């Protein structure tokens, strides 16, 4: 079973600690590092955070680094560990710039990038960016099609409902062909349908082994309707705040999970080392 780490580097993370975290994780045998995305946070918001009882983001976050910046920095200080967005809020971003950033991280890391994507949960963040909240799922699909053309075609072009891309030149291309794998986040039926129809994998969040099984059943049904099967995907799951041990990892493995991704938040090297030593690697 592969073990990954979800990090949240921000104002409390000096650059040397970020580099050290990547290097120590790689030395310990961690398979991947994932960086989240939120360009702004709000002290008060009506949108409900789906992974807490009170609907608020835990810990009153003050901000996180842009995931592509953080992962590019980590790529420069590591050589083997995979690097992923966990997750990139695709409909909030210009798809051409996002395609450029994905390709650049994959290129600079030697093909180590996993593209975790989602449609977003916080209306207030969309409004702050002057991006429509409505139909963000359809916008996400359109934007991903733009990106696939940019990554794969010698002279990419695209005409869709939400974006028109004239013929252009876009390089360097990603190292991974035809493009870095796309992992959809989200646990709803529409999210699982996106996984089945578009994704190369699913990144389930805040799911212990006992909660995971019914989601996998729903995913299998969606895959069947899309003419695909579970073997066509990689399944990544984060237990979020649940501590993981070998027994939990075994229960995930029995459900055919490919990778367990657990949070790592540390203020210094000693905390990083303690958390890595506690992992069931």
Walk me through this protein's architecture:
The chain has 281 residues and is an alpha/beta fold. The chain has one domain: Alpha-Beta Barrel (TIM Barrel), CATH 3.20.20.30. The protein has 9 helices and 11 strands. An 8-stranded parallel β-barrel has the order 1-2-3-5-8-9-10-11, surrounded by 4 helices. A two-stranded antiparallel ribbon has the order 6-7. Strand 2, helix 2 and strand 3 form a beta-alpha-beta unit. It is globular, with a radius of gyration of 18 Å. The N and C termini lie close together (8 Å).
List the helices and strands and how they pair.
Layout: E1 2-6, H1 15-28, E2 32-35, H2 67-77, E3 82-85, E4 88-89, H3 95-109, E5 113-118, H4 123-128, H5 136-152, E6 158-159, E7 164-165, E8 182-185, H6 189-198, E9 201-205, H7 209-225, E10 234-238, H8 246-254, E11 259-263, H9 269-277
Parallel strand pairs: 1-2, 1-11, 2-3, 3-5, 4-5, 5-8, 8-9, 9-10, 10-11
Antiparallel strand pairs: 6-7
Estimate the mean pLDDT confidence: 96
- End-to-end Cα distance, whole Å, is 8 Å
Helix share of residues?
25-40%
The count of helical stretches stands at 9
Number of strands: 11
Poorly predicted regions: none
Structural class: alpha/beta
The H/E string reads EHEHEEHEHHEEEHEHEHEH
From the alpha carbons, calculate the radius of gyration and give it in angstroms.
18 Å
CATH architecture tag: Alpha-Beta Barrel
Major sheet details: 8 strands, parallel, barrel
Strand percentage lies at 15-25%
Q: Can you identify the CATH superfamily?
A: Luciferase-like domain
Which strand order does the major sheet show? 1-2-3-5-8-9-10-11
Which of globular, elongated, flat, extended, rod-shaped describes the shape? globular
Number of domains: 1
CATH topology: TIM Barrel
Question: What is the CATH first-level class name?
Answer: Alpha Beta
């Amino acid at each position: 079973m592969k073990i990954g780490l979800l990090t949240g580097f921000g104002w409390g993370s000096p650059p040397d600690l970020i580099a050290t975290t990547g290097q120590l994780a790689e030395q310990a045998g961690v398979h991947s590092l994932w960086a989240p995305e939120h360009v702004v946070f709000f002290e008060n918001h009506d949108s409900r955070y789906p992974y807490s009882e009170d609907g608020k983001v835990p810990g009153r976050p003050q901000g996180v680094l842009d995931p592509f910046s953080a992962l590019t920095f980590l790529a420069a200080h590591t050589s083997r560990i995979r690097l992923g967005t966990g997750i990139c809020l695709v409909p909030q971003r210009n798809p051409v710039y996002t395609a450029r950033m994905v390709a650049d991280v994959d290129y600079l890391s030697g093909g180590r990038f996993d593209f975790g994507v989602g449609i977003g949960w916080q209306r207030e963040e969309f409004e702050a960016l002057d991006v429509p909240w409505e139909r963000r799922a359809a916008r996400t699909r359109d934007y991903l099609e733009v990106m696939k053309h940019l990554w794969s075609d010698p002279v990419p072009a695209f005409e869709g409902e939400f974006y028109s891309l004239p013929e252009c030149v876009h390089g360097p291309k990603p190292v991974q062909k035809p493009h870095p794998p796309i992992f959809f986040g989200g646990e709803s039926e529409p999210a699982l349908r996106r996984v089945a129809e578009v994704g190369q994998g699913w990144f389930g969040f805040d799911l212990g082994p006992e909660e995971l099984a019914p989601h996998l059943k729903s995913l299998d049904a969606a895959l069947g309707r899309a003419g695909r099967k579970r073997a066509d995907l990689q399944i990544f799951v984060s237990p979020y705040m649940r501590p993981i041990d070998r027994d939990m990892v075994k229960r995930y493995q029995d459900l055919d999970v490919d990778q367990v991704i657990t949070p790592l938040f540390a203020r210094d090297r000693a905390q990083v080392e303690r958390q890595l030593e506690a992992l069931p690697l």
